[in-house]
């Protein structure tokens, strides 16, 4: 229900907040209390176009701003972010529900990309060849694309936009960010920080909205690139519609991440990792482990160790020093609980049932305790679907090959991990697994900013992963210049194809 007395979160266009045309709004809720705390404006086509036009108008000036000046602004942004990250973490916890430490963690991973992007002069440096042909020189440059749109999901309201905008801006593009309507405030906070850091108005814009603004972005001839992160069906849709209108698109989708535990693994380390990666951020991470593949005889012992640890977790309001917060909405909590019902109905063994009441969680928050299933089989919906909640499924297999086959036949390929002390097995896993990000005794292998983040198969549509050198390539295009300064020796007609001589 909408309540007009609530504070309204507006768009950020041309360096200032604007209500837009005021037609539609969505409630923003604190998931730990279940209370509506504000409402966010949902941009119409016209308001979205206003944001795009602001970015397009700012592009020529920003593109021609020296690299030295751009880097100074990035440095200033990094310093402000580092000094005031506590404010941003509190905003994230209040609208997303993840615990404060986890919110600080996502900011730290985003900040790494800002730090990486500060090296942009080196990253876009071209090559130079003197005398490629007689008295002919060749050099290459990388130039920005124009308006870069970013469409982000609810689960990382700061980090996911920061996978893209530091590199895009550093390379000379201007931005339209369309964050998730479920936790919109972080985007406006980041926009205001850019202004404080000295970024000219119009270079970084935030348009809040839903499908209407996304479709406007995808169809706009003024938008050059789209970086999307969200669920697989929407990622596929964004990729197809965006590329159909001639844009460069990278669309990162959903996941079903497996952790393969071999009999020689350190089972305490593996159990710690399974709990951290399965239940951290209430399982609302695209790199969460949701399927644990226990090889051969270790399953009983491993399940017991995971259960023992899971019972110690404190679930509650993320501001109060607990381990796990609520889910994002009541509807999502109910959907995840529905999967638990389905798991039980399909014959999986429920070792810990998260639907039981939780004494730490108060009020009307969207809490669901961690759930541990054993004896899950591949045809069950709890195995097949991305649940995006605190539900960990243990699948028992005979031997490494059966586990590997399961992982490689999964339609998703975002992250995976192997736990073992056998270097040969780990090497074979790394070599043969059809997944984009691989951990060896590391459960959540999110690449550092100087590598690139991205999955395979249904976890990414497009050719380019986020940040790192792939991000630099995505937000720039190459140009090669062949030059000869006039010299009488080069006169005369020659209609042949240019060759090197
Ligand atoms: P979502 O797909 O519902 O929303 C993502 C974005 O798309 C939001 O900005 C939303 O407003 C917009 N959107 C929603 N419906 C739309 C529609 N019909 N048409 C056009 N745009 C639409 O995803 P979410 O629930 O916000 O985030 C969770 C999902 O994101 C999970 O599937 C998770 O795996 C995925 N995710 C993936 C990665 C990755 O790196 N691969 C990272 C984070 C999250």
Instruction: Identify the CATH architecture of the largest domain.
Output: 3-Layer(aba) Sandwich
Q: The biggest beta sheet, please?
A: 7 strands, mixed
CATH topology of the largest domain: Aldehyde Dehydrogenase, Chain A, domain 1
**First CA to last CA: what distance?**
75 Å
Report on this model:
The chain is α/β, with parallel strands linked by helices and 501 residues long. The chain folds into two domains: 8-253 and 459-480, Aldehyde Dehydrogenase, Chain A, domain 1 (3-Layer(aba) Sandwich), CATH 3.40.605; 257-440, 3-Layer(aba) Sandwich (Aldehyde Dehydrogenase, Chain A, domain 2), CATH 3.40.309. 38% of the residues lie in helices and 23% in strands. The chain contains 15 helices and 23 strands. It has helices at 45-63, 67-96, 100-117, 120-123, 159-170, 185-197, 211-219, 232-244, 267-279, 299-310, 330-345, 381-384, 399-409, 423-432, 468-474, and strands at residues 8-9, 11-13, 16-18, 24-30, 35-42, 128-133, 136-144, 147-151, 174-178, 204-206, 223-229, 248-252, 257-261, 289-295, 349-352, 371-374, 391-397, 412-413, 415-419, 437-440, 456-457, 460-461, 476-483. Strands 15-16-17-14-13-19-20 form a seven-stranded mixed sheet, sandwiched between helices. It has a six-stranded mixed sheet with strand order 10-9-8-11-12-22, sandwiched between helices. The protein has a three-stranded mixed sheet with strand order 1-5-4, covered by helices on one side. Helix 5 (159-170) links the parallel strand 8 (147-151) and strand 9. Helix 1 packs across helix 7, helix 2 (67-96) packs antiparallel against helix 3 (100-117) and helix 9 crosses helix 10 (299-310). It starts with 7 loop residues before the first strand and ends in an 18-residue tail after the last strand. The model has no long low-confidence stretch (mean pLDDT 96). The structure holds nicotinamide-adenine-dinucleotide (NAD). Nicotinamide-adenine-dinucleotide binds next to helix 7.
